[in-house]
Specification:
Blueprint: E1 3-6, H1 14-17, E2 21-25, H2 30-39, E3 44-48, H3 51-59, E4 66-72, E5 75-76, H4 91-94, E6 98-102, H5 106-112, E7 118-122, H6 127-137, E8 141-145, H7 154-167, H8 178-190, H9 194-199, H10 202-209, H11 213-219, E9 229-232, E10 235-238, H12 244-250
The chain binds D-malate (MLT).
The site of D-malate (MLT) has 11 residues, from loops.
Length: 260
């Protein structure tokens, strides 16, 4: 299985993702928020590009059944119900509801990848679940780090490196792309002191300065939420909740799944 890594989402094209299993990573904080919202019972998370798209979707929904969430410059967007802190997405707020999510980088990265064969959202919280899915899907893989403002983000690159480390059982195959080598090598350099490395990340520092230290601690937990947000019909839903018929048409089959 070939693995390509994009260290930011800005240059990803449709051709890069078509026929691949794609993982979009935005550790701080969009993908951690998506994983948390779905784990806490949200029906779906709809990632959008901008305010206009969010407004259009909201206008067609019953106000009781959706929550608008998102950020600009890390702060809640005026008029929205929620910001982009995963800690806001508690069961009493999201259970049984759709979340329309509008963030600066993460939801845009997801939008770029929507013509993938399989598209999932990944972060440290669900790293193990993502690796299991990639293995069972068996396709070539594209890992897209959302990054920040067209620049690399340390936390996304380290999370990509952790996924590669697990996929490759700790040793790099002979010939991999430069970006995959970079993510894997960086992870190996920092893995003994991962919490320290992650806290020095520029966006972590920025969030902590603004009072979001709890978000940073939360998002940096590894394997605490083994759920898989899977993109289908313009929304992310729990892979586990897809019907067996949908699963059959969406994926080759996962060991232990009803479609297997
Ligand atoms: C983004 O999509 O840029 C982020 O998730 C930013 C944040 O809210 O931390």
């Amino acid at each position: 299985m070939d693995v390509e890594v994009f260290l930011t989402h800005s240059n990803v094209t449709e051709d890069d993702v078509r026929d691949h299993t794609v993982v979009v990573i935005d550790v701080l904080r969009a993908c951690s928020t998506i994983v948390t919202a779905l784990d806490h019972g949200a029906r779906a998370v709809m990632p959008v590009l901008d305010m206009a798209q969010a407004g259009k979707i909201a206008a067609n929904l019953d106000p009781d059944v959706y929550r608008l969430g998102g950020e600009r410059d890390a702060e809640k967007i005026e008029g929205y119900h929620l910001g982009n802190s995963p800690l806001e997405y508690t069961p009493d707020v999201v259970e049984g509801r759709d979340v329309i999510l509008n963030t600066t980088n993460g939801t845009k990265a997801l939008a770029r990848a929507k013509s993938a064969r399989h598209l999932v959202a990944g972060c440290f919280l669900n790293a193990g679940r993502v690796v299991d899915f990639i293995r069972s899907a068996g396709d070539d893989v594209v890992v897209i780090c959302a990054g920040r403002q067209n620049r690399l983000s340390l936390e996304d690159t380290l999370c990509a490196g952790l996924l590669l480390d697990r996929l490759w059982d700790g040793s790099e195959p002979g010939l991999v792309t430069d970006a995959a080598h970079t993510a894997f090598t960086l992870y190996h350099t920092d893995s003994q002191t991962l919490p320290v490395a992650l806290r020095r990340a520029n966006h972590a520092q920025r969030l902590m300065e603004r009072g979001y230290e709890d978000d940073v601690d939360y998002c940096y937990q590894v394997d605490t939420l083994p759920v898989l947000p899977y993109y289908t019909d313009n929304r992310l839903v729990l892979y586990e909740d897809l019907t067996p018929v949908n699963k059959e048409s969406e994926t080759p089959s996962e060991p232990g799944s009803p479609a297997a």
